[in-house]
Each structure stands twice: as C-alpha cells, then as structure tokens.
C-alpha cells in the first residue's frame, strides 16, 4: 500500500487483444473506499477489473495494486497479488460437489494454509462475518442464491484482502437479496477497512446506496460521476 492508496493507475491504456478498450485511465482507490463501477455493456468494466487482478497486462502508463507494480508483474507474482484481492463474480463459481466447509478449506489449502486448527478457525470466522456459520456442512445447492453469494464473499475474505473486486455480484439475485448483499459489502468496507469495487448495471441499487461512482464511457474512465 502506498499511504492509504490500494489502487493507483496513471495514464494506463487497456487492450483486449489488439483492440484498445480504455485509454489514458487514471484511477485512485483508497482503504475503506466503496466504489460503484458503471458503464454500458462492452464499455470495459470487466477489462478494467482484469487489469487490477493481473489477468490483463498494462500496455502503457503505470499501475499499482496492493503494493504490486502491475507493469512489472511476472506470472509467478499473480497468485500472491490474488491473495490480496477478493474476487466475486455474478455466477457463484462454488465447487458444486463439495460442502461449504470443503469449498473454503480448498482455497485455504491452495493458498498455503497448513495448520488444521487455523484452517478451521478461519473458515468459521469468515462464515460468521457473512452470517452463515450454521451452513458449514451444507452443499451449495442446498443454499439460496443469496446465501451462495454470501459464501463467495466469505471465500473472498479468507486471506484478509485489501480490496474486493465484485463483477455484477447481484446480477442473478432478486432486488431484496441484492440489497442484502450490497449491505454486507458496505459493512465489510466500513468495519474492516477493505476497499470494495462493485461493477453493476443496477441503477436502483446505486441510488439506494449512494457512494462514489466510476464510469466507463467512450473508451475512457470517468472518476466521480453523478447519475440522474
Ligand atoms: N477476451 C477478449 N478478447 C477480445 N476482445 C474482448 C475480450 N473480452 C472483452 N473483449 C472486448 O472488450 C470490450 C470491453 O469488454 P468488457 O467485457 O470489458 O466490457 P464490460 O463493460 O465489462 O461489459 P459487460 O457489462 O457486458 O460485462 C468489448 O468490446 C469486448 O467485446
């Protein structure tokens, strides 16, 4: 982290293959920030998030995420960067043949946790944070869509990330459940200091939870926009 800054992009051009999606991107995200990311389909929201989690590389300009220089990110650095980022997608991507507990253990084991007691404690701790401690032994299909998304958020919290990047996290949920998920993400940013970026098309939810808005439009990223 540079001061309170978790993300800092300066003059970054973002390409998908040879297609310039966003040019001269300047973006600054601090600890505790809760940011909405909006823009029409194909405007570049997912591409911007991919730059932040090291799935696309920076063609020009400079970028830092969680202390990593994105311009110099080697393949071997990517798993370490990802431990400092919690990633939440619209389709829950839980392992469907394992319990909630096994899903969380799987991620902890894959990220170097070996002490059984610490693994058990951490699993209970994150499930407690999302209000699902009692669902430990359930299979994903035994949970509602909102509960499954909570498990995905719990999974994103396992390694105590500096920032959560959520791409349409409420896209498959009904309005009330969507509000509950956003409330949970807001609570995480306020109580734990984790920065949160949520890409969404849902203007109703943005109006319900006013916060900083970043917009992808005409190949640019506009910081701090207002919506009608
Ligand atoms: N893997 C890829 N290869 C080539 N072009 C791509 C790839 N992924 C995305 N694009 C193109 O990059 C542009 C930006 O896409 P991106 O997915 O970032 O938009 P988005 O704002 O997230 O859209 P949506 O709201 O539909 O998810 C689009 O023109 C898209 O067609």
TrEMBL record:
SUPFAM superfamilies: P-loop containing nucleoside triphosphate hydrolases. The keyword ATP-binding applies. GO terms for molecular function: ATP binding. The keyword rRNA-binding does not apply. InterPro entries: AAA+_ATPase, ABC_transporter-like_ATP-bd, ABC_transporter-like_CS, ABC_transpr_LolD-like, P-loop_NTPase. Residues 7-227 form the ABC transporter domain. Transmembrane segments: none annotated. Keywords: ATP-binding, Nucleotide-binding. This is ATP-binding cassette domain-containing protein. It comes from Mucilaginibacter defluvii.
């Amino acid at each position: 982290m540079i001061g309170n800054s978790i993300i800092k992009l300066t003059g970054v051009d973002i390409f998908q293959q040879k297609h310039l999606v966003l040019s001269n991107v300047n973006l600054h995200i601090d600890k505790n920030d809760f940011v909405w990311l909006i823009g029409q389909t194909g405007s570049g929201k997912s591409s911007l998030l991919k730059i932040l989690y090291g799935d696309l590389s920076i063609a020009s300009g400079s970028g830092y995420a969680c202390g990593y220089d994105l311009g110099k990110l080697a393949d071997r650095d990517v798993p370490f960067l990802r431990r400092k980022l919690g990633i939440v997608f619209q389709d829950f991507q839980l392992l469907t043949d394992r319990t909630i507990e096994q899903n969380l253990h799987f991620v902890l084991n894959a990220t170097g946790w070996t002490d059984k007691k610490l693994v058990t404690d951490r699993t209970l701790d994150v499930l407690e944070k999302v209000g699902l401690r009692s669902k430990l032994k359930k299979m994903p299909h035994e949970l509602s869509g909102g509960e499954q998304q909570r498990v995905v958020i719990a999974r994103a919290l396992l390694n105590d990330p500096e920032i959560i990047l959520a791409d349409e996290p409420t896209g498959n949920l009904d309005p009330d459940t969507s509000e509950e998920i956003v409330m949970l993400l807001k609570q995480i940013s306020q109580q734990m200091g984790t920065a949160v970026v949520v890409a969404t098309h849902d203007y109703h939810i943005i109006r319900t939870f006013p916060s900083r808005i970043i917009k992808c439009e005409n190949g640019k990223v506009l910081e701090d926009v207002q919506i009608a």
